[in-house]
Design goal:
This protein is of the alpha+beta class and about 400 residues long. The protein has helices spanning about 15-20, 50, 60-65, 80-95, 115-120, 120-135, 150-155, 170-175, 190-195, 200-205, 210-230, 260-280, 310-325, 345-350, 360-380, and strands at about 5-10, 30-35, 45, 70-75, 100-105, 105-110, 140-145, 165, 245-255, 280-285, 285-295, 300, 335-340, 345. The radius of gyration is 24 Å and the shape is globular. The two termini are about 40 Å apart. It binds a DNA duplex (18 and 18 nucleotides) through strand 3, helix 3, helix 9, helix 11 and strand 9.
DNA sequence: TCTGGGGTCCTAGGACCC
DNA sequence: TCTGGGGTCCTAGGACCC
């Protein structure tokens, strides 16, 4: 049997690198992409020069500004990043049919059995890095290992511009050299729990029995960490997702308890979600609402309908009633969001009975109007929100009940 | 420091059915 | 009147990732 050779590629500080590419005068300077100082928000990506000041992804922008007041703060330009991302992904797609894009800046390649054709993995990886560099100007870090899980960890190991190969048989010693925070999938909460109990290295975790880990982290988390510290997470990016969701949310610049502002914001979000869903030919019968109060606690509400939501107007009416099931007059809201769960291709979801009463007939008509608008917008680039959903994976189709 | 927005996956409890 | 066990669906919330 051929040994699996998996590559994981991760574009370094992607958004910030694109900004430096497009603004050569920013090269060598701390560039911070995200919310702008004075606004609510966090750092999306920052250049390595900014990291030297302690700035990192997800840091509140106010804190980033404090750490790096002379940094170059810019708002994300997703369209531009997606354009460059497409170039890189197209290039990678040529290398093997076993290609899987994970996000705007990440992809897996299954290069098993390619050695005779393309040379040893290390050489292949160097060539890919060089090719991306030449054609786009971007730096990429590559991890090569015998599994998807370890390749992902390896690509992070040598960043930036890294190339890390986990040799066959060297999997455990590779893991032992890592701090706990590099164990992908075990995040802050899990790590805290482990460290509180005195486990600070991967090797220490491996000394624990599965039962002990399950006792500490619960059955799911324990089993995951038990596998992860052995490099045996049976992760496969080609596994099709069971369902999708499409959502939109917004955080107010200032918390608000104003009923009218909340509802008009909700209405805009409903239009956006309905537009993105319809334009992809998708539908869902499970709308959900999300509210985050000023104290950052979050509540959600959802409902499952007999038939898919047909129009943005219907989505809004449903979202409004979910909102009122959670709304506490006077309590200030930080964030409001709406979405659709279990989104599927609309032909499959749409049942025969949709048009069998006057109300749904009206909705059906309105839905047709929306589709016309969608088609016009597609022909008319410059409208927001079309490209993003194209990154969504394929749907598996729904189970018969 | 005061914490975005878009997602996926998992868990746990209740309703309901056989 | 009390009560089994398995399965599925639904809802709410939380961990985690980019």
């Amino acid at each position: 049997m051929i040994r699996a050779v998996i590559f994981h590629l991760d574009l370094d500080a992607f958004f910030a690198s694109v900004e430096q590419l497009d603004h050569p005068e920013w090269a060598g300077h701390p560039v911070i992409v995200g919310a702008l100082p004075g606004h609510r928000g966090v750092v999306s990506t920052c250049s390595y020069e900014a990291r030297a000041f302690g700035v990192r992804s997800a840091l509140p922008i106010s804190k980033a500004y404090e750490l790096c007041p002379n940094g170059i703060f810019v708002a994300p330009r997703m369209r531009r990043y997606q354009e460059l991302s497409r170039q890189v992904m197209e290039l990678l797609r040529q290398l093997t049919p076993r290609f899987c894009q994970m996000s705007v800046d990440e992809a897996y390649l299954d290069m098993s059995g390619m050695e005779n054709l393309a040379g040893p993995p290390e050489l292949q990886a160097k060539q890919i890095k060089q090719q991306i560099r030449t054609q786009t100007g971007l730096k990429v870090s590559v991890g090569v290992a015998s599994s998807w899980y370890l390749a992902k960890i390896a690509s992070d190991f040598g960043k930036p511009d890294g190339l890390c190969l986990v040799p066959e048989g060297g999997e455990l010693s590779f893991l032992d050299a890592l701090p706990l925070k590099k164990l992908h999938g075990a995040g802050g909460k899990t790590r805290q729990r482990l460290e509180e109990n005195g486990f600070t290295t991967v090797a220490a975790l491996r000394a624990l029995s599965r039962e002990a880990l399950e006792l500490l982290l619960g059955p799911g988390g324990g089993a995951f960490v038990w596998k992860a510290c052995r490099g045996e997470v049976d992760y496969n990016p080609f596994r099709e997702a069971r369902s999708h969701s499409i959502s939109a949310e917004t955080t107010f610049e200032e918390d608000t308890a104003d009923h009218e502002i909340l509802l008009s914001t909700l209405q805009g979000l409903c239009q956006e979600v309905a537009f993105r869903t319809t334009s992809e030919g998708l539908a869902s019968r499970t709308p959900h609402l999300k509210l985050r109060w000023s104290d950052f606690t979050t509540v959600t509400a959802q409902v499952t309908l007999e038939q898919p939501v047909a129009t943005s107007g219907q989505l809004y009416r449903l979202a409004e009633s979910l909102f009122h099931s959670r709304w506490k007059p006077g309590r200030t809201v930080r964030l409001i969001g709406v979405g659709l769960n279990e989104v599927r291709p609309s032909e499959k979801t749409r049942q025969e009975g949709l048009f069998d009463d006057a109300l749904t007939a009206t909705l059906g008509k309105q839905s047709k109007i929306e589709k016309v608008i969608v088609e016009r917008m597609k022909r008319n680039p410059g409208q927001p929100g079309i490209t993003k959903a194209s990154l969504l994976g394929k749907d598996r189709g729904h189970q018969e009940k």
